[in-house]
Amino acid sequence: MSLKDNSAGRRVRIFDTTLRDGEQAPGFSMPTEAKLAMAQALAALKVDVMEAGFAAASPGDAEAIRRVAEEVEGPTICSLSRTRDEDIRASEDALAPAARRRLHIFLGTSPTHRQAKLKLTTDEVLKEIERSVSSAQGRFDEVEFSAEDAIRTERAFLKEAMQCAADAGADVLNVPDTVGYTSPEEIYDLFKELTATVRRREGVIFSAHCHNDLGMAVANSLAAVRAGADQVECTINGIGERAGNCALEEVVMALKTRADYFDADSNIETTGLYAASRLLSELTGQATPRNKAIVGRNAFAHEAGIHQHGVLEDRRTYEIMTPTDIGLPSNELVLGKHSGKHALKARAASLGFDLGANHVEQVFAAFKRLADEKREVTDSDLCALITGEHDAGADWEFVRVEMRSSSEARMRPFARLTLNHRRRGRISDIGTGDGPFQAVFNALCSATGVAATLDDLSVTQSAGRSHAEVRVLYNEQVFAGGGSDADIIVAASEALLAAFNHIERARKRASALLVGAA
Predict the structure, then answer these.
(1) Domain spanning 12-284: which CATH class is it, in words?
(2) How many CB atoms within 10 Å of residue 243?
(3) Is 12 helix (H, G, I), strand (E, B) or coil?
(4) Do domains 12-284 and 396-517 have the same CATH topology?
């Protein structure tokens, strides 16, 4: 496999297992079409290897691997396999259309796995490794062997197992921390010893596959890289069994940001990281936590006044990478109760308001009062405070909301709205969508005449009530809204209406400016 030149040092291969280990996690299962969409995004990132599934697990998994192998270009396509002949044949069949194919064989090596699960002696384990890896030779472009639960395997026996796999012809020797048990110091020492003592032909590399049960998957993977690992196995957003896997975006950006320390980099097109993260969230219905490193909404957001002042002067005061590195257009100064006057004035200026000394004091006092009531003060909130519209009441109000949904595929979710506008009176409209919430959103766009895009929806529940927050994009601006109700759809609808009221105010201000200019 050719890897592009790296002025920072060696190139670490990225083995993505979002579609296999990640998809196995409860709540993250994906149908074939969703897997294909995610696979295309991973190919655009230029992952080196894409583990598309476990062919022997089910006919659906085998079909998904075959579709990825047929339709996705760029990465080596991989299938997981036990040492069984039928597993190897299933992987061979599923991977047949791929331009470059890898078989990933695994077998437990720890005392716990040997005794409790496999019922095999150490000699029997070695024979099974030798037989299965040898059997795969010539049938795949590459063969990877994983010693499952390697970290809890006796070190002497782990070296034997790895030597056995290398002698049988394995191209990649993977050392999984299957249960997230190790520490950076321990795994560094282990990889140092393995890379120094296991004899292997030129081009055979060691790989790290770390789970996050103790919250150290990324740190352990980076320690393994420092000790000689040439491949890291990871997933988008760190999804995976139990607490997840090493997060691809985190390990990649650590290598990129600290190339001076690791003397290594990856082949990943980092500007696609944010989009890939968002796509995975959309496909699985699992939102990325706000405080998630690299791709969470707060990763480049600043609310504290001291931080905002520093970033306004020089972003390097509190940012070690740029938002554009991961595909975001800019950082975000979040206006909340911790924000200061510097951020308020900067945001007002970006919205076209030049606040004098006296006016900024008045607006700042009103802003602080509002910020104590809300988690976040939006651009539309700030505009309303500056212009004195904030207490003027909403333009749009719900009179009636009707929704219909059905389990029958031929009947799309449907919404009928009756709204009251303070000047235009009552307006009714209908909308359809992939779900009742999308139907309400489409009906609102039609009724209000606003061609908006839904950017984000989050819902929490407490004390028998649902609390919804939405972000809507209109004219390249974000408009947020919140709602609360016992019914989750009603709460989300109220949040949407609040966002649309903010848009209405922004449109009125824009019209007033045009009239004034004329």
Answers:
(1) alpha beta
(2) 14
(3) coil
(4) no
Chain-wide mean pLDDT for the chain? 87
CB 225 within 8 A of CB 265: no
CATH number, domain 396-517 = 3.30.160.270
Of 239, 241, 248, nearest in space to 208 by CA = 248
**Cβ atoms of residues 435 and 462 within 8 Å:** no
- Distance, CA of 316 to chain centre: 25
Domain-wise residue ranges, the chain:
12-284, 301-387, 396-517
Lookup: tokens for 441: 């959103």
Q: Are strands 414-421 and 396-404 parallel, antiparallel or unpaired?
A: antiparallel
Contacts of 155 (CB under 8 A, 6+ apart): 190, 193
> Which residue is it, tokens 């539309």?
380
Q: How far apart are CA 390 and CA 384, in angstroms?
A: 5
pTM of the complete model: 0.74
Strand ranges of the sheet holding 477-485, from the earlier edge strand across to the other edge? 453-462, 465-474, 477-485
Q: Which two tokens stand for residue 78?
A: 């991989």
Residue-wise pLDDT for 54-85, tens only, equals 999 999 999 999 999 999 999 999 999 999 99
Task: Give the pLDDT confidence of 448-478 residue by residue, as tens digits.
Answer: 999 999 888 888 777 778 888 888 888 878 7
Measured CA to CA, the distance from residue 96 to residue 98 in angstroms comes to 6
pLDDT digits (tens, 9 = 90+) for 477-512: 878 788 888 888 888 888 899 889 888 877 876 666
